[in-house]
Amino acid sequence: MERTAESWELSTHPDGLSVIVGGEQDGTTLAAYIAADPSVLGTARTSDELPVLVKLIDAAADLSIQVHPNNEQAQAWEGQNGKTEMWYVIAAEPGARIVYGVKERVSLAVFAEAIRDNTVVELLDSIPSRKGQAFFVEAGTVHAIGAGNLIAEIQQNSNVTYRLYDYDRRDKDGNPRELHIDKGVRAAVLEKTVPPLMPLCDDGIRLLSSCPYFEVRELTVRGTVGRMCTEESYHYLLVTEGTVVVADVPLHAGEGVFLPAGLGAYTVTGDATVLLVANPPVAVI
Fold first, then answer.
1. 159, 187, 215 - which closes a domain
2. Which of 109, 218, 241, 245 is the most exposed place for a label (fewest CB within 10 A)?
3. Do 58 and 97 sit in the same domain of this protein?
4. Which residues are catalytic, by number?
5. Does residue 284 lie within any of the structural domains?
6. Mean pLDDT of all residues in 252-258
7. How many C-alpha atoms does 46 have within 13 Å on its Cβ side?
8. Do residue 58 and residue 108 come from a single domain?
9. 0.85 exceeded by the pTM?
């Protein structure tokens, strides 16, 4: 049986389009639905394009060491958006870790040489991961998801990744997988970076991340919770644990629903942990 290590749960990117299931729009791509009426993204949008892409990543082995370019670099080099992202740890096996930035400031020349010598891992910081933890990974941060992590990734709407090190893994034909050393080194921020800690909101809902591209909160649902999807922003809800019913749609762990801006009041009923993704900033959720 083939293992699925990564799934794109919410995407209008041409490399992996989401398709609407059920209702009047059944079978329509999310991209086509938004293009027909960009107001579903809300008045807080900065363009008529969905700004985010949401993935689930199940790492059975250490994933490659990577870096993503910022907007300016990605537009110049690839004609795409840059890629700032955040990770939410849905589950972590004992001993699971993530790679997050360099241990200390390092020069570009030293970093490039370490990649060529296969010693770059020695320069990188490794952090234990645990269930419920959130990591904000700004473009330019060298990073990797370690074995034993199940991650929800909320990122800019982009598919630009520069692979710096891959543990000498081979493709199906026995060839080393491609590295992107030149662009990757130029995109990397080689300063010590500490993952930011996000405080609780006043209503007890945990704010996980807020940046120019997305805002993410963790909702702990025990019974029925009322939410408000105003004209400001769409809501995307992803269930990470348990089962809920959202606006009459039943959702299990790993499933999500897109709610258009202006929907108004809705309820989330069940016993679950749910991520709520929206445009930043959203005053009423």
1. 187
2. 109
3. yes
4. 163
5. no
6. 96
7. 11
8. yes
9. yes
Query: To which residue do tokens 């645990």 refer?
Result: 130
pLDDT in tens, 95-122: 999 999 999 999 999 999 999 999 999 9
**Of 5, 41, 83, whose CA–CA distance to 235 is shortest?**
41
Identity of the amino acid at 5:
A
